[in-house]
Amino acid sequence: MSKLNLRPYQQGCIEAIRKSFAAGHHRVMVYGPTGCGKTEIAAAVLELTANKGHRAAMILDRRVLCDQTSRRLDKYEIDHGVLMAGHWRYLTYKSIQICSAQTLEKRGSFPNLKLMIVDEVHNTRYSTVEFIKNHQVKVIGFSASPFTKGLGSVYTDVVCGSTTAQLVEMGNLTPLRVFIAKEIDMTGAKKVGGEWSSAEAGERGIQITGDIVSEWIKKTFEIFGGPRKTIVFCAGVAHGQDLSKKFKEAGFNFVSVSYKDDEDAKQEVFKEFSRTDSHIHGLIATDILTKGFDQPDVMIGISARPFTKSFSSHVQQLGRIMRSFPGKDAGIWLDHSGNYLRFQDQWEDLYHNGVHSLDDGAEKPKREPTKEEKEAAKCPKCGELWQTKSDICQHCGHIRVRRNAVVTVAGSMEEIKLGKKTFAGNDRDLWNQICTLNKIEGKKPGAAYYFFKDSTGREPPCSYENAKTVPISPEVRGEMMRRKIAYLNAVKKGKVA
Hints:
The chain is 38% helix and 15% strand. The chain is of the alpha/beta class. The protein has 3 domains: 8-162, Rossmann fold; 172-368, P-loop containing nucleotide triphosphate hydrolases (Rossmann fold); 414-492, no CATH class. The strands form 4 sheets. It has a 7-stranded parallel β-sheet. A 6-stranded parallel β-sheet has the order 8-15-14-11-13-12. A hairpin with a 2-residue loop joins strand 9 (191-192) and strand 10 (195-196). Helix 7 runs parallel beside helix 9 (237-249) and helix 8 (209-224) packs across helix 9. The longest helix is centred in the C-terminal third of the chain and has 19 residues, at 474-492.
């Protein structure tokens, strides 16, 4: 037996996978947010498969991730081989194999394989997908952001391991404190495949490099009293180099890393940055830091790469600063890209509810918030995102003046009374839940409309047909039941026909 001890929700995830396979599914997606222990869940499933005398493999798309996963299995004393050319652990007879996607492509086959686990499936290579479709093997895909179009044609069921909200509540992740800073202006910018051109985003990002540096200096001293480890997500190599130069001119050591750098040199930089007394204040990169980079003592994330549709990348970036660490009360997010408000509705839905279906949330260009919505979402004095139930900014103490009983901020949480209870969500959350329950009850769309209008005094945020199917909260379900009982009592007393 290994030294692997799973948490209750991880055990529950494995049981859900078993049930999915038993129900006839052969390719199962597991959604697990950053910090849920996807590697531990995968390791346990690999070991269970090997203990039954079957072969199992975990596929990762980078050599460094294969080595990282192999070390984790060593930690738990799980015997395995690493299927990569030239690797010191090239032991093909082992029942458990850690394998690079590139090796799988070259081999073209994997004799007697019973189970394949694919990591980071939102980035899955075409050849890996083809292998899956052409071989009779059970497959489990893992992802913290399974929003890539087409995943629903590969995986036929979804298991939600946990939600971000649950992990924050358990202390496995830290909450976010978000500051809406000076934004990179992407007005009229060229798009490639529906996403803003990285070259143009980089050019425009360079125009506010000074603001990015000064905002970081201001916040790190206000919040921490001095520099804290930071990662910066930039728009390209030139943008990263410009940021590094400006930070150094201000007296801080920020190192830019990119695909152009020697792999050994990058690993030395990462090794130095991992030290508690590192002389590197921050790392700057485009995509390198969005996956497979787990540095829990990073306190600050800077978003300087605007996305119009890449919610998956946004989620991965947020996850880099949410890992828990002693003395870390929150991860600080300085948003210069506009991404947080752009994806806020989608992020809050994911945060609280997780993922229960594929392709419904496929990445599409998002509506750009108006100038008024952006201003209303943040404290006018320091830029921190307004919290749900407070009129006082937790950062600078600024007090906002309410014009009416409910402050409406696009995408933010609001206080909405449902009977005697308060609904902890926003207009879109409430409308999605009302429509979902309405459809389950077999009622006409008008019933959902009047339920929402009576509760909020406002029009629904979208049409009945465009409302998403989501989990229903006790508050919404309880209010629906209260209304039903009240109606039946009224009928009984002859007050309504």
